[in-house]
Amino acid sequence: MAHATRNMLILCFTFFLLLNLSNNFAFAFTSQDYSNALDKSIRFFEGQRSGKLPANQRLKWRADSGLSDGSGYHVDLVGGYYDAGDNVKFGLPMAFTTTLLAWSVIEFGSSMHSQLNNAKAAIRWSTDYLLKAATASPDTLYVQVGDPNQDHRCWERPEDMDTPRNVYKVSPQNPGSDVAAETAAALAAASIVFKDSDPSYSSTLLRTAQKVFAFADKYRGSYSDSLSSVVCPFYCSYSGYNDELLWGASWLHRASKDSSYLAYIQSNGQTMGANDDDYSFSWDDKRPGTKIILSKDFLEKSTQEFQAYKVHSDNYICSLIPGSPSFQAQYTPGGLLYKGSESNLQYVTSSSFLLLTYAKYLRSNGGAVSCGSSRFPAERLVELGKKQVDYILGDNPAKISYMVGFGQKYPLRVHHRGSSLPSVHAHPGHIGCNDGFQSLNSGSPNPNVLVGAIVGGPDSRDNFEDDRNNYQQSEPATYINAPLVGALAFLSAESTPK
Could you name the active-site residues (predicted)? Predict the structure, then answer.
């Protein structure tokens, strides 16, 4: 009897061990998995396109929209991206999205392989628009198309828009250093992307970036003050504009190699947040990203002027690493970085991108992260960044992928007008402003799959509600996806197939 009991215990233990092993490795993503996710993460941007769609458009349920944007103001503002689930073109998040897409290609384009041209197309769709917005009138930057207050009262497809397509701009009289400097950063970063493949376009991007930055710096002020209720509370610049000026100068320094931008950074860094330890990188606050960009110069060239940026980059990274003496981040029980209840995954993707980019810089120069008396190698950063990306892709307590169209289970009721309403191909008739609310409030899955979209994500306890009305959790946005493009490219090259 004792012998039989012992055998039963051994069998039970073996089963338990196998069960745990299968749970642990159920989400051992391969290089092919990350490449598949990369493809989808870029494809998402095609679902956000405004303007005349090209013949090679892959998300076929979308059609042309916003073809007269700007015409009432005698400017051409056709094109660009809708920021999230609505039909407004907000300049600040669009420019940040572009900067992060470009940075992704700059750092990890060599790992994108067949997706590199698609990533460049995603960048160019935005920069073509930003160029028009920056050059339509002297000393003017057009920063928004669409009245968000009116738009948000409707639930309609972009192809059916009949809300006011008001145009908003910043100027010497109504400055917007934050949105202008971010636009300069986007154009400068993109100029690096196209330097070899399209030198003429690259030169145009850089030249325009320099002009827009000069405008941002000369006429200082926040666009939130100039445009008030049409940008707040939607994309209010809570962090002010100093972080964007330093960020913009850093990208122009990297793109142009012009010593005047180095001098600008050295002269203004102290007053623009160089010494601030900030722990959130987003469309609003650029400080951690700026420090990591500038730390590259210190790591590669021992540029002493940038030594402080390495220290502050370390401080940011240390705040994220459990076990670090200066650890201060919050994680869910399932291991997800948690910053806020609304669109939390935007902070997860941006932090993951910075972790993996900084790891790349450290690896190239034999460096490590200093956290007080502790030191962490680049591999620790890769491990943490990978864990966050894997959580998004399905390695989480709910066993759900937060990328639409990836994996066996993913959100079906995404807070997105075009995705949730019948496409114009399936329903050619006009769906009016109020008629779409039936779809918003429906419990049915979205008829059009917004492939690659990353939604806002779960709460602080790993709970997720697949509900179209819960926009905090179910709404996608371009700036959630953009940094993930780079992170997935890195991981597709880092991982080996089973």
Answer: 415, 466, 475
Task: Answer yes or no: 427 catalytic.
Answer: no
pTM: 0.93
**Annotated active-site residue in 253, 312, 415, 416:** 415
The Cα 260–Cα 253 span in angstroms is: 8
Q: What is the pLDDT of residue 495?
A: 67
Any domain includes 78: yes
Taking the C-alpha atoms of residue 358 and residue 460, their distance in angstroms, rounded to an integer, is: 26
State the CATH number of the domain containing residue 230.
Answer: 1.50.10.10
Domain count across the chain: 1
Whether 430 sits among the annotated catalytic residues: the reply is: no
The distance in angstroms from the start CA to the end CA of the chain is 42
CA 481/CA 101 separation, integer angstroms:
9
List, for residues 244-260, the tens digit of each pLDDT value.
999 999 999 999 999 99
Inside any domain, residue 39:
no
- In whole angstroms, give the CA distance from residue 486 to residue 104: 4
Cβ distance 397 to 378 under 8 Å?
Answer: no
Q: Round to whole Å and give the CA distance between 265 and 271.
A: 10
Strands of 216-337 (E only): list them. Answer: none
| 160 is a catalytic site residue | no
Q: Over the stretch 241-300, which tens digit does the pLDDT of each residue have?
A: 999 999 999 999 999 999 999 999 999 988 887 788 888 999 999 999 999 999 998 888
Asked if the structure places residue 137 within a domain, the reply is yes
69 inside domain: yes
- d(C-alpha 208, C-alpha 197), whole Å: 19
Share of the chain above pLDDT 70, in %: 93
Instruction: State which residues form the domain around 146.
Output: 61-240
Indicate the helix (H) or strand (E) that contains 142.
strand 141-145
Q: Given the residues 33, 69, 390, 466, select the one marked as catalytic.
A: 466
C-alpha 461/C-alpha 248 separation (Å) is 37
Report residue 444 as tokens. Answer: 């049915």
